[in-house]
Amino acid sequence: MDGFAHQIIAGIATGGIYASVALALVMIYQATHHVNFAQGEMATLSTFIAWSMVEAGFPYWVAFAATVMLSFLIGVLVERLLMRPVQNAAVLTHVGVFIGLLLIVGNMTGWIFGYTTKVYPSPFTSSGPLMGGLISAHELGSTAVTLVVLTLVFLFFRYTSLGLAMRAAAYNPRSARLVGIRVGWMLALGWGLAAAIGAVAGMMVAPVVFLDPSMMTGILLYAFAGALIGGIDNPLGAVIGGFAVGVLENLAGAYVVGTELKLTVALAIIIGVLVIRPSGLLGRVVTSRV
Amino acid sequence: MSASENVAIPATIPQAVPARRGMPAWQVALVVLGGLVVAIAPAFVLESFPLFQLTMAVIMGLAVLGLNMVTGFNGQISLGHGAFFALGAYATAILMSHLDWSFWATLPFSAAVCGVVGYGIGFPALRLGGLYLALTTFSLAVAVPQILKHKSIEDWTGGVQGLFLVKPDAPAWMPGALTPDQWMYFVAVGVAGVCFLLCWNLIRGRIGRALMATRDHQTAAEAMGMDTATLKTRAFAVSAMVTGIAGSLSAVAVEFVAPDSFSLMVSITLFVGMVVGGVASILGSLFGGLFVLFVPNIAEAISKAAPGVIYGILLIAFLFILPDGFAGLLRRIAGRLRGRG
């Protein structure tokens, strides 16, 4: 029974990471109806930036804060330079640009920082076992960080006027523009926020999976699955979906398919959700008039 | 995913093709003869390694053609065609190494398997469409190596180690003594040539027009009485079949298959080849194949990461500047010249 409880708790800890990346995906999807295939690679790049700062002797949390801000800027920049020119192009063009971004960011990361696996420090240490050894200090700490991030995002969108403006721009760009919201910049801000959230997820998962340029590929898949379970246009749903996928993945890995097919579990979830309930658990059912 | 988004892309606006007056017979003969010379000459001119590379380029071109059939002409975005490439390669490898089939015998079998699987995947693809299909096929591409490595099929696939094969020898009735490399090149060119011809024939006729109509405006196509569901699933089957045949050829040309050679990168390479060569262009697929084979080789001299970076930059550059790819560029140049002359 202890093993089972541990699987659930470890699942919640990794689920937090998936939830963060899923939230980042949903932030961009909600505003622009794009799925950012390069989200994982961007987060990996951020984590490498944080790593080099820590290596250079900066305190952990200084590096953390600087990385989040830098990632925000990178996100805004990517939207301005790459996505804005193709805003009204066909889906194929968007997918192509995202794949291009994935290739550039992923390979640049390998080029600059090398392909050897690196150890990334965890800021959370404990002197003794926590909760009777059920959970490690890092699992507890990263789950806490994830929850703080999610709460901040929620508060930002719910209670600030900028958050309201961003929601308005996402839901109804035309009306939002009429009331004086700069829709283009709201989209760029959304990209920045998504990149920052992704960076936090990257820094939280790096101590567990170790840091290398392809660290996030699998995680991105689970985040896709999480976002789809919850409904890809619903932030709360994405978070719940992310946690659910984390637990599901851990249980399936431990008791059903073994660790070799973990990615296939994500694939099965994605296909299952899309075929049976494309709008997810909490998503809006979209009907389009032709 | 409103239909109007699909219409906006310049590459897919159906262009009225002026009625062909038909070239005089001697011109046709000249073009065919020239094509044959260009196709045959490398086998006797090139050293064995460049010839192998050219063989692979033709094979990649065929794989890109498969992707083009479903993504370019039918508008169903697939980022996972590496899976069909792998399926074809493994079908041939398993039959050749476990059951001692000859290469030629495995070809129809591998085509059939890929066609059936493609048809099967076409059904969920119907419900997904657009972005979701891209997402699902992307996930499939990521999961492929893991599936191939799985223990339950290890006896057949050879697990992580993969399977070794031998290139077919040139048959005895061939004039002159052809080396296996030369023969492999002819096999690749021959099979690819037949597939290109068949695809061209499919696209230029009624079915091709229906495929493109479905891509450009599904509702309108349906209103015109086209069975879009059947068209889309069958397009997927044909596409998978063509890419699978390319996979079979690559298995014997490389004489080796292993799970890690079918990573996400294969699917992305095919996608890059399609965009650079020309979306919805038959001949463009061949350019795409040449591009994805030779450009990384040149770029690798700079750095291990350079091919990926250059792929990415060129992919975005083509989408921004030349959305109809290299084939579109040639078409434009040819049009300019004809206009002047």
From TrEMBL, chain A:
CDD domains in the record: TM_PBP1_LivH_like (cd06582)
What does the UniProt keyword field contain? Amino-acid transport, Cell membrane, Membrane, Transmembrane, Transmembrane helix, Transport
> Any idea what this protein is called?
Branched-chain amino acid ABC transporter permease
Q: Where in the cell is it found?
A: Cell membrane
Tell me which family the UniProt entry assigns to this protein: Belongs to the binding-protein-dependent transport system permease family. LivHM subfamily.
Spans through the membrane: 6-28, 60-78, 90-113, 133-157, 183-209, 215-232, 239-257, 263-286
- Keyword hit for Protein biosynthesis: no
Q: Which InterPro entries match?
A: ABC_transp_permease, BCAA_transport_permease
Looking up Pfam families in the UniProt record yields:
BPD_transp_2
Q: How does it sit in the membrane?
A: Multi-pass membrane protein
UniProtKB/TrEMBL annotation, chain B:
Keyword set for this entry?
A: Cell membrane, Membrane, Transmembrane, Transmembrane helix
Name the chain's protein. Branched-chain amino acid ABC transporter permease
PANTHER family attached here? HIGH-AFFINITY BRANCHED-CHAIN AMINO ACID TRANSPORT SYSTEM PERMEASE, HIGH-AFFINITY BRANCHED-CHAIN AMINO ACID TRANSPORT SYSTEM PERMEASE PROTEIN LIVM
The regions listed as transmembrane in this protein's record are 25-45, 51-70, 77-95, 101-121, 128-148, 183-203, 235-258, 264-293, 305-322
Q: Pfam families annotated for this entry?
A: BPD_transp_2 (PF02653)
- Please state where this protein is localized: Cell membrane
**Source organism:** Belnapia arida
InterPro entries, per database record: ABC_transp_permease (IPR001851), LivM-like (IPR043428)
